[in-house]
Amino acid sequence: MNTRLSADDYISLLLFYQRYAETLDAGQWERWPDYFADECSYRVQARENFDRGLPLATLSFESKGMLKDRVYCIRETLYYEPYWQRHVVGAPVVTAADQHTVSAHASYAVFRTKPDDVTQVYNVGRYQDLLLRAPAAEHGWLLQSRLCVFDSDLIPNSMIYPL
Amino acid sequence: MHMTTSTGSDTARRWIDPGSSRIPYWAYTDPDVYQRELERFFYAGHWCYVGLEAEIPKPGDFKRSKIGERSVILVRDTDGGIHVVENRCAHRGVAFCRERHGNRSELVCPYHQWNYSLKGDLIGVPFRRGIKQEGRTVGGMPADFDPKENGLTKLQVASRGGVVFASFDPKVQPFEEYLGPTICRYFDRVFDGRKLVLLGYNRQRIPGNWKLMQENIKDPYHPGLLHAWFVTFGLWRSDNKAELLMDERFRHAAMISTRGNAGQAGQATAGVASFKQAMKLNDDRFLDVVPEAWWGEPTAVMTTIFPSLIIQQQVNSVSTRHIQPCGPGQFDFVWTHFGFEDDSAEMQRRRLRQANLFGPAGFVSADDGEVIEFSQDSFAARDDASTLVELGGRSVENTPHMVTETLIRGMYDYWRRVMEL
Known about the structure:
heterodimer; A: alpha+beta; Nuclear Transport Factor 2, Chain: A; 7-stranded mixed sheet; about 40% strand; globular; B: alpha+beta; Naphthalene 1,2-dioxygenase Alpha Subunit, Chain A, domain 1; 2 domains; 4-stranded antiparallel sheet; 8 helices
């Protein structure tokens, strides 16, 4: 397996990561599932569980339908204080690539700003991704799986929005 | 009786209303009240949760845990016995154990290498007898220094069905007596001796008083109103068949509910904004509920063990939720999800999938932490008001329905007696 991407492919991958973050930072939740393949998984897991091989994840979705159910939950069924997220996502490191898929990981930091409050470091961690090349898709790539392994040991009260 | 407070305003700490249906805001904010709670509930007279035996399966395994604000270590001895010792070196007070879990043959404080057995006995003190210099012994501990009197603080330990509780109080009553027969029955319903399988943790810091979480799980009024998923899918509705039971001192409780009426409109949904009759999941595996023989009739039993533990059984999702207060205005809330040794791979997947409903990001329970924060916001802003818990009356009794706040009144009836407030 080749782990090199062409410069053009890497730039498009970089853009994909940045667009994903921008979509979340803009609160465009309905567009969030568009970054995923129809068969996909999205998980947010404490580093403690990940490192120890414990299977529990704070959020664990196994289909695009589950992502849409989360969006409905954010919009309609949970009661919470709204907040802004700001993602800072490092350059992805590609660990494997072939003509259809790319494995990559990238560090992220998410800041949270609540109304009338100072900004806080909300969640930091690492995306571990499997991406599909998708020339027909808006951003050229689709996530087949995204695992957010977070260092932040205590979640400051609640986690409503995706990371 | 009232307390002297740092503000000197002792009238502010007088419980004015009779009974326990109006709880003054200062009960959630006053630092002296909070200190008394730690002393009387967490450090004396009560059993506090520390962990599961499944977290320390092998000899030498340990897990760092919390009782109130104190750090403790749950450890399995070489003979298989379980001990709980305070994480505080007898020498200079160092909370020496910094790892959250691991395996050791002895407990060592690296500061001066005092070492202790897994039982907490002091085994070695470097240079206890001094050192030889030019033929003379210099330094060392005084001749009457007795290692037997300088071990780690050893706690009382009770393990039942694989769940470990501990107490700093050597005179604490036996654990079964502490639970009482009614609550013991519901405790044993989950922890009936089957080996538990650890699935993992969720940890959150909630900016509210620790009692608000006990109250949240003694409040069957809110789930069918706040939690859209519960009311819409019938997991928890006000017209579900239900029972609310307490121990004879009203400190522990079990909220017992049987699922019904999913998706149907009725008295329990009329005017309830969170009831979404048309709501359909895109992926209904979140609610792939398979009844288990050990449940008996109820589909959910939420048990509060005062002061530190909530036992969750909501359909196939089971967890312990550990309350760790840190100051009057916040607490850490640690969820330990588990399954059972005889679970099929499919059942374990189901438990993990349903765990999406709970925890700090849960489809159902993410907003419990939020409402606790919003209550505390008001408590912190004024001293002269009280909460009102009068659904179902002002008295305390077990009920065959859930349209009541009797369990919260029960807890404060007990709280007032112990706190002498």
